[in-house]
Batch of 4 targets.
Target 1
Amino acid sequence: MKKLMIVFVFSVLVFTNCQQASETTENGTNSEPKPAEDLKTTLSKLENGAYEAWKKKDGKFFEGFLHDGFVGNGPNGPTPKEVTVKAMGDNPCEVKSFKIMDEAATEIGDSAALLTTKFEADYTCKGEDGKEFAGPSPSYAASLYVKSGDSWQAIYHQTVPASDAKGETPPAGDGEAKKEEESEPDEMTKTLGDLDKKFWEAWAKKDGTVFEEGLGSNFSEIGPNGVLDKAGAIKAATEHPCEITSSSFSGSKAVKVNDNLYMYMTKGAMEGTCGDDPLPKGMNATTIFAKEGADWKPVFHTATPIA
């Protein structure tokens, strides 16, 4: 079980340290921001409070900080609130120093906003064998916040190690986590799954037209090389060195944020080559879809490699 908790610390909620926001209460519920405070400042303060709670192994904080519908994503796939809260309290890591930077906030729907960050940290964790190892740093992260009444709460979080990250990422859990059987997908999962698959296929074919026409106007993504806007994402999708021969998807699920915003999570696996680098054995991906007129369009995407 220890391996599972370590993975949660790395990729479900890798919250490092900064001063806890004065607007944050002990149980993680956050008060309405001051009128003069911009969105980036507000969400950065909330995120910083969570980083401090991670450092202190304060699982109780996350009971209020996380929305009841929270789902994190990482090497072990989608992770609900109750599992994340326990993982934050039980995490086997010790933080020595840290730095959060490059915060950017974007409204992506009614009472919903995305915060992206880059962070560096000097921290060690204990593996299953009791040996200590350095955690990966730097990394890029994304958090989706929703406004519940007068408070902002996190409903999603995911991290991706930077291309120049040092340290170790433990492998995904090996069956210790509770496994759910594949079930017939609901209609929204089918709808978004069909759309999502078109983008994966277009990426494999380096077909920029699908991305130009299909992505939302304020689309962004995070990956090993940082945060990309729509133009940067299209460039990356059409100029990558990979040659894909086949792909498959499993464990897909659409998670409702509100009537006009959904998170679509899936595990993707591809066969092929990628220049001199091997393809990961799989990726746990998240795409956030927003309703634009009559169409569902991606406004954010990321994928965490499965070690």
Note: Residues 72 and 157 are 5 Å apart (CA to CA).
Target 2
Amino acid sequence: MTNSFIKPLLIGKKTFASNLIQAPLAGISCAPFRELVWQFGGVAYCCTEMLSAHSIANENDRGPRFQTRSPIEKNLCWQLSGNKPGILARASAHAIQHHADILDLNCGCPQPKIRKKGCGSKLLSDEKKLSELIKAMRQDDHTPVTLKMRIDANHGEFCDRSVAKMLENTGVDAIIVHGRHWTHDYNVPCQLDAIAAIVDAVSIPVIGNGDISDAEKIKTVFTQTHCAGFMIGRASVGQPWIYQKITDEINGASFSTPTSQHIGELFLQHARGLVQLEGEKAAILQCRRFGKYYASHLEKKAAFLEALYHIDLFSDFESNVKAYFN
């Protein structure tokens, strides 16, 4: 790659061919979704959904949804949530035993139920504890440990630069920064200057995250932050080809967006994977949730979504997708 935007990414001792990363997405980024991303390529690695370290360490939640990995998946990051060193150590060891390529500590989740447990974005206000957690996650010298965080945005809860420097000194291999405070909704613009300040504060890779949806946004984020890579979340739902599309566009190559029929086939593939993991009922409920993303291009989007909300059987779901997407 000859451009300055999309290029190889070194995290710890591992080099990835791209610096585009699939974000952890609660309720979405399990194996059937990640498989679609890898079919198109253009991504450094994909992330699991946020996983409870306590559940993994105590063997309470080691079901197929959270541990299944498609044969075509390459690099996979297990994102863990927890606030106890011993628990995180056991969960990290289990993840590595099950071929995790990277470990990530969630310090970005804004949900009150997670923060009340002292996890997610709440951890950023306690540097000492955070340092202990990172040290506990380090199980060997070749599995990178990263951390995904939010910014303080002048709320006075923590200092972005101080946290970042502590993380670097503790041994974190890369920091992923979502440029919003945990209280910010998505209508609040991502603060690129805060990401840039963290990039300037440390020598380890900093990955920019938030509002990245196309090649032009990649250029903007890099120009304003000089971050080492880019993590894409919501924009990838319903368009798993986004990483390859961005790569091709930045490299001056042509990319053909999938046809409506192809997108419908991808939606069905995603749904069938969920059926295999969790059964028909659970799969249909999840498809109702993210159907709007796959259907974003449809002229009769509203009619399709209305039909989707009244479907209970996979056979009906399949026939409706074929009818509307063809």
Note: The chain has 14 helices and eleven strands.
Target 3
Amino acid sequence: MESSRRRESSRSKNHAPDTGWRLYFRDMDAQVKTLPEKEEVRIRPFWYSDYWIFPKLITIVTTLDKHGRVNAGAFSHIMQYDVMHKKPRILLGGRNTAHTFINMRDTGEFVINCPKYDTLEDMMETGRFYPEGANELDYTGYTMIPSRKVKPPSIAECPQIMECTVDKFYELDRTQAHVIGNIEAIVMDKGLAALPRAERLPAMNLPVGLGDEKRKDYFHTSTRDVVMHVLGDPPDVYVPPVETEEAEETAEADAMEWDAQALEMLDGVPKALQKMVRGQVEGALLDRGEKAVTGALFKGLAREFGLSEELLDRYRTDADTTA
């Protein structure tokens, strides 16, 4: 039995295709001597903190519990979920037993406050495990101010604030939850939004979390010192298509007819986005029982999903302007 497994293993290796990356590694023996040596580390509880470095923006999420009491908690598991301005949404992750998550589930509202690096000590105070019902902000130098669209308070000293309502609440398992929030308002210190990003980042001086050691020693940096890189157009690269006859037949069967006006509108979309936009337009119209893409239908979807010229301009490259 053992020899059978060895023969099978040997046969698999002998028949492995010489793909590009295999040929590449065959020719780099001399280079390997100068590269860093690697080691595998054990995946253990809090691997994301003990080993892996996750630079993350640190925020303070304020909520009200079902009795109207204020809670504030430091959170970093936050990212954009839907960037379209028609329905902007944000994603938060964390312990479903945290007071913040219990309050979001019970009351449906929360505020994401982004403190300045200069107030790091106060921000860390909101990360302590205070008893339920305590207002962590009472033990900081922060000032509570009314929010504009939701009931939980905002923090005056935070240069950017996001007021949200709960769209969806996901209980992932016994300990974890994800919340998708609708962004009801974005509030910033006056004048910040008009600054170019190169000036806004150091002016806001936000703390960036670099993890902790043993849930005790926390490490941070800030957005005061930044480096800007210009992302140019990629070089002309030919990638040969890999398609089977079955895939081609399926694509032909699924393809929708486009009228001249719709094609002209699609041509106005940046080249890098045309394939994605075409697929999403056809998918949305197929779901609605449409058989073809017309200019009127395309225009209606563009309004519905916020596909504006302002948005498209963010993706235009030299290839679009010189075409």
Note: Residues 1-16 have pLDDT under 50 and may be disordered.
Target 4
Amino acid sequence: MNYFAVDIGGTFEKFAVITSEGDFLAKDKIPSIINDRQRFLDSIEDQFHAYEKIYGKLAGIAISMAGVLDVEKGYAYNAGAILSVREMNIAEYFSERCKVPVTIENDAKAAAQAELWKGNLSDVSSGVVIVLGTAIGGAVIVDRKIVRGKHFFAGEFSYVMRGDHRNADISNMWGYNGGTLGLVKMTAEKKNIPEEELDGFKVFELVNSGDEEAMDIFRDYCAGLAYRIWNLHAVLDPDRILIGGGISAQPILLETVREELDKVAAIQPNDQKAPEVMTCRFFNDSNMIGALYAHLLRNP
């Protein structure tokens, strides 16, 4: 059977037709419609019907999106940058319009589902996924199931506090400076370059070229990431921890984080070893693959 998968981001809405085995038959994307609810909903429904004309009856719709979601009810309390669909039952709406089962999944947790299904968590029972994006997404897996929490807040690593507890400020949240934008901002300040002239790709051009100032900032960034990984390791002791997001495709990231984790392990009093850390196997398609896996689990 074939399914319609959607990945709703702040920049693009991505669409695909995927088989029940996870093979892509078609992919497309359009700029995200952020502030107009009906245009946003219509854009997804129109693409669904367009694909059905080509591929025949689609068996379901699997949606990945940012925000705090009740995935059992299909309800979005908020949807990240898509301001128009806060407090809405997304699954119910599209199920009524398209006459197929519909599921929703948080985007970072969808990435984790992809790793559980066919990626670097397929051979373990517990894990943590940290997604380095604009901020920090994530997921905690126990007994091969996503831990969601009473308030659907489990794995929302952006909200983890760091630094001096006497200075309670938004800048002490991990997501404030732990994502790609944080790395860009710190590098821009160090290099005295306007922030708008840098992005993640340009930062890694500097790092990979051996620029000393960029390397100093990058090493500090990885040390901070390693500390947070160690804390998660101490609380959860999972089989494996994965790092995802666009910058995780840079080999130097994993290499440096592992070096910094070894330093943390070296100061432990009980010969505690560093956790096993890898990158995610899937990158740009992970959210749609994981959303489909979540859909298949709920609609066997």
Note: The first helix runs from residue 37 to 55.
